[in-house]
Each structure stands twice: as C-alpha cells, then as structure tokens.
Amino acid sequence: MKLEPMNEFENLVIASSYLKNEQGCSSILNEKSFLQAVDKSQDLLCRLMLSYFGDSEKNVEYLAKALRFAIEKRHDTISMGIAWHLTWIYYKQNQFAFPSLVDIWPAVRCSCTNESEYKNDICSSEAVIVVQLDTDAAQPSVMFFSIKVIYFTNLMDETLPFANRIIPYSDHIPITGSSAEMLFNSHRNLTLICKSSCLTSKEPCRPSNTQFEITACVKLYCKAKGFIPIGEEHFPKIFCGMRTTVVQGTPTLMTGMQIGKKVGTDNFKKGTLGGFVRFRGENAFLTCLHVFLTAEELTADYITLDDTESYHVKYYQNTTEASNEGDGIVCGKIQVFGFGKNSEGTSIDAALIQLEKGIPIDSSHFTETTGLQSCYLNDICIDYNSLRHGFPGPTISIVSIGAVSGNSKIDFNVMVQKPIDMDIDAFKKSISDIILEGMRDHVVAVMQALHSWSDIRTPVRDRIRISVNKICSAEMLVETKESIAEIVFRIFPETLNHENSDQIEKIDKLLHEATFEQTSSRFSAIVSDVHMQTTALKRTVESAKRMSYKIYKQIYIPGIPFEMGDSGTCLYVHDSVNPNTKGCIGMAIAKHPDGGCIATPIMEILKHFQIRFKDCY
Q1: Which of 74, 323, 438, 439 has its CA 20 to 30 A from that of 11?
Q2: Residue 134: domain span
Q3: Calculated CA dihedral for residues 291, 295, 300, 304, nearest 10 degrees
Q4: pLDDT tens string 507-552
C-alpha cells in the first residue's frame, strides 16, 4: 500500500482499515510505507504501525534503518517511539541474561569533542542501546543488528580523569530545589548536581603560556557520559548562572549505618545505627529509610508502610557477619519515617526506630568515641552553617562510625560558604597567582635543584622539603609550599629516565593533573545545595518501566571514607576556632562519586519528626 499525500488523520483511517486483516497488514507494514510516514513526521501513524510490527529479524533491520532516518530528520517523538520499541525487543530477548540489570535506555552517541562544542540540537544520528549493570566485571560492547549495545558497570566511574578532585571555590550562588527539579525532569540520566570549581584559561594564548584561573561551576554527574538519551538535548552550558562541567558518576546509596553496629532485617539490607534521640519520653535512634525499602517502593509516588503490622528492626552485635537470622536481636520497631520529595525544601530519607523496653544505651562508648558528653542528638545537634569561615579556613575534626568503614577521624579546613569578602579575595589571588600561574616556575626550580643534589643518601622527601624551603619565599603560604612539595614528589620519579630536553615537556604534561590532585587534600569544604536523582528499572513479568526518585538540598562532605553499608552514619564535628561548637551536623545517606559522602542536615531531620532540640527552646 502506498500512503497518499493527505493529512495524518486520513492516513490513519486508511491504515486502520488495512490492519484489520492479515493481507492488509502485509501490504502496509513494510519499509517503504513506514519510511514515508517518518518522512512526513506523522507520529500517530508511525506509532500505530509500530504496534503491529513483530520482532522478526527483517522488521528489526528496517526499524533500525528508520530510526537513523528519523534522527537525521530531527523527528524527536518518532525517534523516541522507534528507539524504545527496539530497546524493548532487545530487553525481551536478553532480560534473563542480565540478573544484575539496573537500567536500560536508547541514546545517541555524542560527537562533540569537548563541552564547549555542545549544541542545543542532537549532534549525531548514531543510535545505541545503553545497558547499566550492577556488577564490577567489565562487559564488552555487542551488536543488536546494526545498533551497538553499550554496557556500563560499576568499574566505569573509577577510571575517569578528574572524577575525584576538587579545588577551592566560593559557594555564594544558590542552586534551588526547583531549578534542580526542572533539570532532573529534562535529563533522566542526570544523577547528581553539585557545586564545584574548575580551571579555565584566562584568554586565548599559546599552549606553552596558558594561564588558568579558578572559577565556580556546577558539576553535572550522569550515568553514561557521551550518550544522550533519545528525545533529550545536551546538558546546559550554564546553570543557575554558573558554567557546567559534565562528569560520569552515580551517587551510591549506602545500606549500612551505625553508631558502632549494624541494624536492619534478616531478609533485607543492613544499615548503621546513626544516632540516638529522646522521642516522646522514650529512647530511639535514627537510620536511613531506604535501608528498609526496595528500589521499587522508593520510587512510588506515595511511600507508605503497612499499618496492619509492626516493622521490627534487629541490632547486630557482630558487625562483620550479620547475615544469619540468629545473629541479631530485635531492638525496636519503626515508629515514624520521612522520605520527602518536595523540591522547595530539604528532602528526608530517615526512619526513627523506638527502642524496646530494657534495651540499654552504651553512653560511655559514645563519649569515648566522639568526645561528646551527651549521646542524644537533641542535645548535640548543630547547624553546619555555623562552621562557615573565611579563607584560609580553620581546621575542624569530623568523627564518623560506619558499619562497614568503621571508626574514622579526619581533619580538614572549612571553606567559605558565604559571599566573598577581602580575606577570601586575597586567598583566591594567592591560589590563582602562585599555585596555578607561578607553580610551574617553582616546580622547575625545585626539580633542577634535585637533579644537581650530590648526596643521594638523603631521603627524597627530605631533599624536596629542603629545596622547597630554600627556593620559595618566606611570604608564600605554607599550604602552597606543601602542594609544591607533593607535586614535585609525584613528578620527580617520572623524569629521572628522560633527557633534559624531555623534562620540561614531561613537567607540563603532569603539572595540570597533579595540581588538581594536591589542592583537593589541602582545601576541603562542606558543600550545600546538593541534589540527587536515582533511576531504576521496575520490572514485572509483562512489563518494565523506568522509575526515579529525587532528593534535594543535601550537603556534601569530601574526604570521609564511606562505603556501601554505612547509610545512616552520623557525622560529629569539633571546631578548632570555637571549642564550644561541637556535635552532629548530619546523617549520611549516599556515597558521592568523587569520594566522601552526601548527608542530610541533622536539624532538618529533627524538625521533620518534630523533635525538640537545644536551639529551639
């Protein structure tokens, strides 16, 4: 059958009459008729014909050809219809081959060589099927007829350059929950929005004389960088007034949380006992709600628990082996929970477990571990905003006790979380001028001194330290000298086997990367306005549907060693500037793809459960 050049409604009526019998189906369901409907952008007609197409090799082959044609014609809705039809065929044929399947979607491969070339329109017509697997084993790409199938596993995030590095920045531009919601809704494979900094060249110049400066940016983390879901556009170049940079990575929800021990159920995930609270005259503790729910339940529009039964929680004395039913004892039951999705406020992922009568709290262990006198969050919760200081920030200590990571204590400088003042400007200039612009000269001078060092019996680190102190001026910041020393320590062994003519090129090649790494450990931050989205495939025997849930206005704390199983771990801080500022600032809910953890401010959790704490009376 040949479709006449008439409107789509008339063609739909004609096609419907042909599709009522087998002979008519064979006359209309062919490559020529379908391509003609695609060419005329007749979306409804294409979808009608797709519903009658089978999954034979012949049909799949010319549907793949039609998909490329639709993408080239920029018929987005038709492209989406064909792409998801092909993806569904592939899924049905292979669903039992991937027990670790997390998500699957059709995409086009981005042909832009760098982010500055990003366009608003699709930049290529190469369609692929992206498959996300929850496994550490690498999976090679395969072909599904003429469409390539790309597998993404847990190993992908770990090998990306600059995926775990941060540098100082001023955090004075807010990212609202409503802005994040709009971006999440436009990009289903966006997993995390987080403020950061990046190096940008000041002006076009020769590569050998390139000068860089630190500018604020927004990091957009996605499941599969370089692959744009069909029907979507590139990520925006500017978001909330800041330039964006795209990084591949996914925040990992942790299913474990303590103040020392694991909690959970025998048949499901384990979490960490995060912190104790006094709740309506009874003892209780907090942990993450996602510890007790499936991914399907978390993506529901309205999360509820069955009111006809109690949700008992077990306490596992042995934190290394908590898989057997006899290992744990019932310590309490879920009293209330919160899983807020409102983009205008702080999202909550928390469950409050009321302890059974006679279950004691080891307050002496808590005090010994955290250095705090009271074990109740009602008494020791503090606002993380109270830790905001000017450059250079003072040192604070953070103690965390995770069920998997165990006890940890880190010391780091708190960065600015308020508008720039004169102290910030001076420190930013020092970082920009000395570390990034003048660093090369200092590194080269120290390297030359090391190569001319006569007494090789002196340890390399001692030689570097002596050379740095001799070459760098007394006015230079101690942090900058330490960064130079660490950069030289990394680069020096790489240049030992090269001729002098090759050393400068080697230094230039490594300096940019090493500077990023060494600034991250010297200047950390408590980053606010962090928003997260998790998408998973909800599967039944007959169907599969992509579902997602979003979490808004969290905080990100880099440098803390958190692993799967640490969910609900509370973060306890000590401020070196104000010794009276000490207590709990948040409860960890996820692992950040750059390392460290994403946490919910503890005061927001207590407010949600209407728990009275010291600052509210």
Answers
A1: 74
A2: 95-250
A3: -30
A4: 555 555 554 444 443 334 678 888 988 877 777 667 777 777 788 9
